Amino acid sequence: MPIPPRDCRARVSAVRTLARDVLEVDLDLVEPPALAFEAGQWISVPFGERRVRAYTIASSPRSASRLTLCADVAPEGIGSRWFRGLAPGADVRFKGPLGGFVLAPQDTRRLLFVAEEIGIVPIRAILLELPIGRPAVLVYGASEGRRPYDDELRARARGDAAFAYHAVSERDVVEAVRAVPIDAGGVAYVAGGEATIKEVREVLRGRGLDRKAIKWERFW
Ligand SMILES: Cc1cc2nc3c(=O)[nH]c(=O)nc-3n(C[C@H](O)[C@H](O)[C@H](O)COP(=O)(O)OP(=O)(O)OC[C@H]3O[C@@H](n4cnc5c(N)ncnc54)[C@H](O)[C@@H]3O)c2cc1C
Questions:
Q1: Which of 15, 23, 66, 184 is the most exposed place for a label (fewest CB within 10 A)?
Q2: What tens digit of pLDDT does each residue of 191-200 get?
Q3: How many C-beta atoms lie closer than 10 Å to residue 27's C-beta?
Q4: Domain chopping of the chain, boundaries
Q5: How many CB atoms lie within 10 A of CB 81?
Q6: What is the Å distance from ligand 1's center to 77 Cα?
Q7: What residue ranges line ligand 1, CB within 6 angstroms?
Q8: Confidence class of residue 86 from pLDDT cuts 50, 70 and 90?
């Protein structure tokens, strides 16, 4: 059963810079004091009538009273400016959890993750919950000096022989997806910009993956 979204209030407890124009923010929940969600889900922040921005929960559902968000604030629109302005003590209102870019617990298919830039956030959250030894491949395309969670992902790859990590330039994501081993009976999770998602989906279909086995989250 999906967790119904609700209106929430939280207070910023910490702000960190992870890379150029990439910020991480911890939110301590006030109301409700804890929020149930699934790894890969997001929250919706309102900016007036019918105007919202979505931010994925980067942290584990095991931490239900403190959520971490991670944003690329380079786009400089209303969402980026809001995120950049967050400081410890700030009051934050949002609705959540939302979205179905989540791993079904009973799904045992081989996993391929593809992240373009800040599209790594839901995949990072899913990986935090993925048991060591579960076969998975990650292709992560990011621009120079802007690869949040890279150290953590490298550490996982060193400690988990079943996890293959391919860090590539943002221009090489599609080529890397052409080259990685693919299990036609597997499932793929792709997150990032629309153009790359479209190309990656075509490559994966061409390599035998069923349309329904390709899950995607379009950030921009
Ligand atoms: C389900 C979902 C989850 C999301 N989760 C996150 C998240 O965890 N972290 C995060 O940073 N963003 C996330 N986003 C994107 C976020 O909601 C905003 O769209 C983003 O912060 C830009 O908002 P903005 O108002 O600053 O810019 P806008 O005014 O919305 O956009 C300005 C321009 O920048 C483009 N653009 C927007 N984002 C990017 C980007 N990252 N790279 C390149 N071009 C971009 C837009 O297409 C537009 O042309 C998510 C979006 C969705 C739909």
A1: 184
A2: 999 999 999 9
A3: 26
A4: 6-98, 111-218
A5: 12
A6: 8
A7: 42, 53-56, 70-72, 75-80, 99, 117-118, 121, 217, 219-220
A8: very high
Which structure tokens are listed for 6?
Answer: 């609700």
Structure-token match 């950049």, residue found = 84
DSSP-assigned letters across all residues of 107-130: --S-EEEEEEGGGHHHHHHHHHHS
Kindly indicate whether the domain formed by 111-218 is annotated with CATH number 3.40.50.80. Answer: yes
Atom of ligand 1 nearest to the CA of 79: 25
Ligand 1: atom nearest CA of 82 is 26
For the entire predicted model, the pTM comes to 0.98
Say which residue the tokens 């080259």 belong to: 179
Nearest residue to 99 (alpha-carbon basis) of 38, 147, 30, 49: 38
Give the number of C-alpha atoms closer than 13 A to the C-alpha of residue 186, restricted to the C-beta side. 18
